[in-house]
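(Protein data)
===
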Amino acid sequence: MAEPPILSLEGLGLQQGGRWLLGDPNDGPNDGEGLNLHIGPRDRMALIGRNGVGKTTLLRLITGEVEPDRGVRKVKPHANIVWLEQEPDFSQHATLMDFALAGDNAPPEHGVESIAGQLGIDMTTDAATASGGERRRAAIARALAQQPDLLLLDEPTNHLDLAAIDWLESWLDRYRGAFIVISHDRTFLKRLTKATLWLDRGGLRRKDVGFGGYEAWEAQVYAEEARAAEKMDAKLKIEAHWLERGVTARRKRNQGRLEKLWDMRAQRAAMISPGGTAKLKLASDEDFKSKSVIVAEDISKTYEDRPIIKPFSLRIQRGDRIGIVGANGAGKTTLLKMLTKEVEPDTGSVTHARTLSGVMIDQQRSLLDPKKSVRDVLAEGGDWIDVRGGRKHVQAYMKDFLFDPGLVDAKIGTFSGGERSRLLLAREFARTSNLLVLDEPTNDLDLETLDLLQEVIADYEGTVLIVSHDRDFLDRTVTVTLGLDGSGTVDIVAGGYEDWEAKRKKRPVKKAGAQKGSSGAEASAKPSPPPPPPPKSAKLSYKDQRDYEQLPGRIDELEELIAKGEAALADPNLYSADPERFARINGSMELAREEKDAAEERWLTLAERAEG
């Protein structure tokens, strides 16, 4: 006999600012019936949705903190529901332990101490001066020590280093209760979830498949909606194409970008010496030097007799995407600042190309003025924005970053934290530069914005330095990983996070409880080569391979042609003024749509074969 649910939401609806945010009775995927959700005792669910659609608000409804405008919330008697907030308030607490023990549902102190010890956090730390990582660990210790029946996790991996993320994954894997998690960390979601909740346009869909199957499910839903959109009028078709099919098309193009990334990693693997040092060489060393934009020679850094960065050398080329990973305190930010010449090394030197011009996007993003509009932030109040030397209409540029162009005059204060982060990315990526420095860029971003960020980085013509704990993001983005193990050694590996992990696993296993500063494996270990690119010639004929490489470009051309046609047909006077031209454009668009659909199907078929 099935166990009763811990919690049920039936016919829920919530208004915000005079509109239905959730459970619109007149629209949405739930056909106007409101929002329904049943959470079983062992459910492990990912909550997916764009920034601003109401994911955090839905968690507040589940906890009972927010009352719905319609519908019913039912909770199993004595069920303990615990919410790990994204940004808990520490302002009224002297120490981290004071925060952990506050409130009516406070956990036992010994339980907090036990979990805090495993996470490596001193709970006597002053709450006002604690770092983001320390506050996140304290919040996790408080939440887990309450022994919840239902655990709600809002971006739990923000500010955590890789060791803490691994620990949290292991704890949740053993956990016997239910949880719902909002996270941008794809690896975290794939490893832990068994069902997916998709919050979209005020409605909630559920599928009993973990996050690993989410994209296929999403594509299926979008394809069904696209077929339905064919029955709509021309204006709705345009909106449906942008909203429903834009993401799918972007993901197809990103497959081609990933293919290019494999090739770049293979080239980089050939440049790294067997000793794992940073003497990166090409067949023509002079040619390599001419392309170098940052040259670090035997640089090192020591703080209070502790080696943070042991001497190593590195040449970074134009177009390189360098990822920097490691535990908190291992020296990632120090290394980044040495490479960008913000901090002088104790030994050695760092040289920049004379033409190097950088843009820094860090994790402590300055707050945007909530009274300013999108137009103010992007275009200084005007209609046009300078985008890397060119000019673009601000509303068109907004669409590039997944914003509704109708929000051009909306105040920043009405945006969610993730939307503000996306807006800052849009502003910074418009600046002219040939070096992009990203410090924890994925915090507060939804999955679709992460797809967009990967796309923009892949198309960026300059060099990119990235500090991140997001394993999937690094695997999809960087060509070389600099891995710091806390001993001062810098591993240089062609590829992403998984390639660095593969190298680490080849080393002798350290004893449990080893201190952060303990000696790591020898730097002479041979670096792990990147995973080989998908085999081509064995599976694709010459014609198939040519189509596989050329179709993405043709699809882009057809999309541009269709967009121009749709813009022309949107003129209400066109038919009466020139019916022949109207018919000609309409006919051309139908042919273009048919060709594009066929090209997409052909490319997907070839991609499946090429990728095995």
